[in-house]
């Protein structure tokens, strides 16, 4: 799954809304953000977190 660091990868609508609500609109903004902080967002589940981590790793980045 190739993703751009300027967009969010395809995750479920609730998780996407949670990220947008928290001000995250690009994958690169999530680099270094603690996984536990993202997990607290309403609508963010383990599957979405895994997809985000995998997408970040494609660009040599990761969650905090």
Break the fold down into its secondary structure elements and pairings.
Layout (H helix, E strand, L loop, with lengths): L12 H9 L13 H5 L6 H12 L7
Distance between the termini: 21 Å
What portion of the residues fall into strands of 2 or more residues?
under 5%
Domain count: the total is: 1
Largest sheet: none
- Which residues sit in consecutive blocks of at least 5 with pLDDT less than 50? none
Can you give the mean pLDDT?
Answer: 94
Give the helix proportion (percent range).
40-55%
Number of strands: 0
Q: How do the SSEs run, as a string of H and E?
A: HHH
Question: What's the total helix number?
Answer: 3
Structural class by sheet pairing and helices: mainly alpha
Shape estimate: globular
Gyration radius, to the nearest Å? 10 Å
3D architecture notes:
This protein has one domain. Helices cover 41% and strands 0% of the residues. With 64 residues, it is mainly alpha-helical. The model has no long low-confidence stretch (mean pLDDT 94).
């Amino acid at each position: 799954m190739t993703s751009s660091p300027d967009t969010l990868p395809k995750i479920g609508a609730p998780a996407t809304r949670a990220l947008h609500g928290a001000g995250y609109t690009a994958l690169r903004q999530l680099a270094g953000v603690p996984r536990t902080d993202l997990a607290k967002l309403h609508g963010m589940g383990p599957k979405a977190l895994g997809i985000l981590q995998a997408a970040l790793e494609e660009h040599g980045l990761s969650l905090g």
